[in-house]
Amino acid sequence: MACPPSLFVARQLELLEREREEAIAQTELLRTCRSPQTLQRHGLALLALQVIGARTGLGGQCLLELGPAVAGGRFPPHQIRPNDVVLIERNDGTGDASGSKSGVVWRISDARLIVALDTELPDGWGDRCRVATQPVYSTVLGRMRRSLQRLQRRIEENDAATLLDVLLRGHAPRFDYRVKIEQWLDPSLNASQRAAVQLAISADHLALVHGPPGTGKTYTLTEIIRQYVQRGKRVLVCGPSNLSVDNLAERLAPHKIPMVRLGHPARALPSIVEHTLDAQTRNSDGGAVLVDVRRDMDAALARLPRCKKHSERRNIYNELRQLRKEYRRREAKLVEELVGNARIILCTLSGADSRQLQGQTFDVVVIDEAAQALEAECWIAMHRANCVILAGDHRQLPPTVLSNRTRASVERSVLATSKDPAVFTLDVTLFDRMLAQHGDTVKRMLSTQYRMHQDIMAFPSLRFYANELTADDAVRARLLSDMPGVDATDDTTIPLLWIDTAGCGWLERVEEDVRGRSGDSRFNPGEAGQVVRHVRQLVEAGLPAESIAVITPYNAQVAHLRDKLRERYPQLEIGSVDGFQGREKDAVIVSLVRSNDTGDIGFLADYRRTNVAITRPRRHLCIIGDSETVGKSDQFYRQWYEWMTEHAEIRYADANDDGEDE
Ligand SMILES: Nc1ncnc2c1ncn2[C@@H]1O[C@H](COP(=O)(O)OP(=O)(O)OP(=O)(O)O)[C@@H](O)[C@H]1O
Q1: Ligand 1 centroid to 215 CA: how many Å?
Q2: Is any ligand 1 atom within 6 A of the Cβ of residue 184?
Q3: Ligand 1 center–CA 522 separation, angstroms
Q4: Ligand 1 binding pocket includes 216 (Cβ within 6 Å)
Q5: Quick one: 355 and 335 in the same domain?
Q6: N or C: lower Cβ tally within 10 Å for the chain?
Q7: Interface pTM (ipTM) of the complex?
Q8: Containing domain of residue 532, as a range?
């Protein structure tokens, strides 16, 4: 039996609070240990900006336009992205920190940054400012906490909703198999995809679609959503990231179903821009009136910089306040109409808490990438329906949890089945919990994959997917040498290669943290040399650098590899394994980094990370690592290496080879 619902929710609340404290502590650490200049060097801040203008956006928000203070200047390299929460601070030499404001990045280009603020910048602000990223946790965690508190109330009131019974009270999920699919809207679906659609459509309250890498999860969800709509149902489609939501929106867009994508349109793909609430509001009949009010607001905003007198400025602020009120009233009415008429609403999980969805209910909530979402985040959306379809892959990485750095996450399959709420950690997802609680009857796994050469697929299939994956004919034998312009060489004609660095003495090194102490991250210059060599050989064989990704579990190795490779191969993608989840490339080189005498493998012990790393390539996977270190005390890595010796090519690195010369 599962743990008592109210205890479970109380424990989740406690864990969220710990997460909030950790997020605050980390931000503080950044702020206290690093100067603004250092933050800018790390891509977390942009300094010396000037206010270029302000106009009105959706919701009557103030869209503040910023650019480099130097005329014709460009921003330095940075990591600021649309939807990031940023803090705008005045930087006019007065040293006055008052008036700093939090906003959301709307758009960002080489020389322009537009930030959405709830109100204008305070009166008296100088034109000079700087911007620094802030963890979004504060907003998202707040929404999660509210959703759990609501859940707690529903449990106390004994809410009879059967979704709660299945998700929290251990009742078995029910399926009505009389619900048959008369016509496949997408006839190209394969047998396992059809089985998943059938299960989802028959579910009274809960069904899981397990989608291993490249198996067409998005394809399948599209059919599920369309089948629901055809049955007259209203569907809320969510995912933890904007990208997950946009991928589905893009697949649904051609089918002409009334749908609305909520959230900032900044990152919307061109094909779905017309479905964003922002665009639909503008293009509707009522939108013309809004445009008029918006014009009045922009005109008032434009007058502001010219007013020197305090009283004049105060009058303009009063005028703006009235106009904003009017704008919000009219807009709310329009939004209610648009949202109310839509059969499909798409938004991030935390976006399901937005005011545009106030009072809205749905027949079903579909959650993509559910194995990467915190359970509390899922509840934000799940309060709106009595049936939920979860799609994901619990064999890949779970959501990032700041407060949980222990090996507990590795052992979470044990935790997920426990009755003791004290052992739950935040990265035990709802997807995990439901599988542990209800078993395989509640899920269907997609088993044909459309990404990897069959040899690349074979080990992950064996180890993570009960050997049930098959490679579609179109991909099963494709090699790099089959690509146009690529020569057949020793490297391009093999799908699997391990460059073994055992015995080379290339020991891992520890990166210093922000305080100059030994940090968590590691790098390995010897391995990096082998990466350089392999990239060079592939490119010399005619493979474009943009078809190659170099990935590694450690951020310090990412930075080290970027230093070595970026200039020579600007198109080459170099990143962390975690950041590459959900992506694919023709050739993928994985640098394992760990090399020591004790066999310490750190967070490589989370095999889900290894699974993500080795399932990214289409045609060629090259592992660079020390087989002795990783296999010393870890059975998984020992088995993997043994398997590789039978099925892949093993090359032994030369200790005198730094990868730079022929
Ligand atoms: N039934 C099918 N017939 C032919 N191709 C398919 C089919 N299903 C999926 N594909 C192809 O497989 C690829 C992956 O599909 P999709 O993007 O839906 O996968 P996914 O499982 O969501 O991916 P990820 O591994 O990133 O989660 C796509 O290029 C798609 O064209």
Answers
A1: 5
A2: no
A3: 35
A4: yes
A5: no
A6: C
A7: 0.96
A8: 450-652
